[in-house]
């Protein structure tokens, strides 16, 4: 059967093998999908080894998304702009194509939760690779305004300028945040450390939604903080499943039903 995998470091806790096995079962596609821990400095070799062993495509996660971007021989327009590749596939001519499905995954999950997007005031926290990767699809939903706030203010300002052609953007430090916002997306890695960026109390508009790109068995510190301030909260498990579905579609041309997998995975956390 056709072989796929996810490369990361570490990769032990990845949910991707479970998700893709569920998609394959559901769609009747015959494929195998494994998790591979590539050495930190050995991503390109790990891909070559996998391809030589009949690997047809791969997902790429932390810390290899930029290395995958450099390795790909062709890039989708959205991957080129994101500066990151989370999906690799060999095209019919045997060329390695790189794409990114993180941004569409986020927007699909936001839409599934009826998040305010068109005409909304959106705040994005963080200005690293994870945020860069989702800005284009977010701006394409037509927000009134998208503000990027980051611990290092200059990075947020640069990102806002880089994407200013796609909509009304602004960037700055956490101390410059002037709410309220209809949607606040946490794209910092602060949750990992159990940290909360310094945020003003009056952050959310009435009916505002807090979204954390991270997920876990318990709500993140950001989502707990947001819930205490009356916001509706959603974690990033759905984004993980939606980006996987989009990768599956790129590889197989079939769209899995994500809702069924979402419930199963939530119970397994
Ligand atoms: P990723 O690929 O996950 O985006 P990254 O490029 O290292 O990883 O970016 C991490 C992001 O989380 C950055 O925006 C970082 O802020 P800085 O640019 O100021 O470094 C942010 N971040 C990490 N730890 C944080 C913390 N404890 N508080 C606030 N922001 C944090």
Automatic annotation (TrEMBL):
Active site feature: 65 (proton acceptor)
Domain Shikimate dehydrogenase substrate binding N-terminal: 6-88
Residue ranges constituting the Quinate/shikimate 5-dehydrogenase/glutamyl-tRNA reductase domain according to the UniProt record: 110-190
Binding site for shikimate: 14-16, 61, 86, 102, 215, 243
Residues noted as binding NADP(+) in the record, renumbered to the chain: 126-130, 150-155, 213, 236
Enzyme category, top tier: oxidoreductase
Keywords: Amino-acid biosynthesis, Aromatic amino acid biosynthesis, NADP, Oxidoreductase
Every SDH C-terminal domain range: 236-266
Residue intervals passing through the bilayer: none
InterPro entries per record: Aminoacid_DH-like_N_sf (IPR046346), NAD(P)-bd_dom_sf (IPR036291), SDH_C (IPR041121), Shikimate_DH (IPR011342), Shikimate_DH-bd_N (IPR013708), Shikimate_DH_fam (IPR022893), Shikm_DH/Glu-tRNA_Rdtase (IPR006151)
Annotated EC: 1.1.1.25
One protein family per Pfam: Shikimate_DH
Catalytic activity: shikimate + NADP(+) = 3-dehydroshikimate + NADPH + H(+)
CDD domains: NAD_bind_Shikimate_DH
Pathway stated in the Swiss-Prot or TrEMBL entry: Metabolic intermediate biosynthesis; chorismate biosynthesis; chorismate from D-erythrose 4-phosphate and phosphoenolpyruvate: step 4/7
PANTHER family for this protein: BIFUNCTIONAL 3-DEHYDROQUINATE DEHYDRATASE_SHIKIMATE DEHYDROGENASE, CHLOROPLASTIC, SHIKIMATE DEHYDROGENASE
Family: Belongs to the shikimate dehydrogenase family.
Oligomeric and partner information: Homodimer.
HAMAP family, A to Z: Shikimate_DH_AroE
Function: Involved in the biosynthesis of the chorismate, which leads to the biosynthesis of aromatic amino acids. Catalyzes the reversible NADPH linked reduction of 3-dehydroshikimate (DHSA) to yield shikimate (SA).
Protein name from the UniProt record: Shikimate dehydrogenase (NADP(+))
Organism: Modicisalibacter zincidurans
Taxon lineage: Bacteria, Pseudomonadati, Pseudomonadota, Gammaproteobacteria, Oceanospirillales
């Amino acid at each position: 059967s056709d072989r796929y995998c996810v490369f990361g470091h570490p990769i032990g806790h990845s949910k991707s093998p479970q998700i893709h096995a569920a998609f394959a079962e559901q769609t009747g596609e015959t494929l195998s999908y494994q998790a591979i821990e590539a050495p930190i400095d050995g991503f390109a070799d790990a891909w070559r080894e996998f391809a030589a062993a009949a690997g047809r495509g791969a997902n790429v996660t932390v810390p290899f998304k930029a290395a995958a971007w450099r390795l790909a021989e062709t890039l989708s327009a959205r991957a080129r702009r994101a500066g990151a590749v989370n999906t690799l596939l060999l095209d019919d001519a045997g060329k390695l194509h790189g794409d990114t499905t993180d941004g569409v995954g986020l927007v699909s999950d936001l839409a599934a939760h009826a998040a305010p997007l068109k005409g909304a005031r959106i705040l994005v926290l963080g200005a690293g690779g994870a945020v860069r990767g989702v800005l284009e699809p977010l701006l394409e939903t037509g927000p009134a305004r998208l503000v990027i706030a980051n611990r290092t203010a200059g990075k947020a300002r640069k990102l806002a300028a880089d994407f200013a052609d796609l909509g009304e953007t602004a960037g700055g430090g956490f101390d410059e945040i002037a709410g309220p916002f209809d949607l606040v997306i946490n794209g910092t890695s602060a949750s990992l450390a159990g940290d909360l960026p310094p945020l003003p109390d009056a952050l959310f508009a009435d009916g505002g939604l807090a979204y954390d790109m991270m997920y876990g068995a318990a709500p993140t510190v950001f989502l707990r903080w947001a819930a205490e301030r009356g916001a509706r909260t959603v974690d990033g498990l759905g984004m993980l499943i939606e980006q996987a579905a989009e990768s599956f579609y790129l590889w197989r041309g079939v769209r899995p039903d994500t809702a069924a997998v979402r419930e199963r995975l939530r119970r397994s956390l």
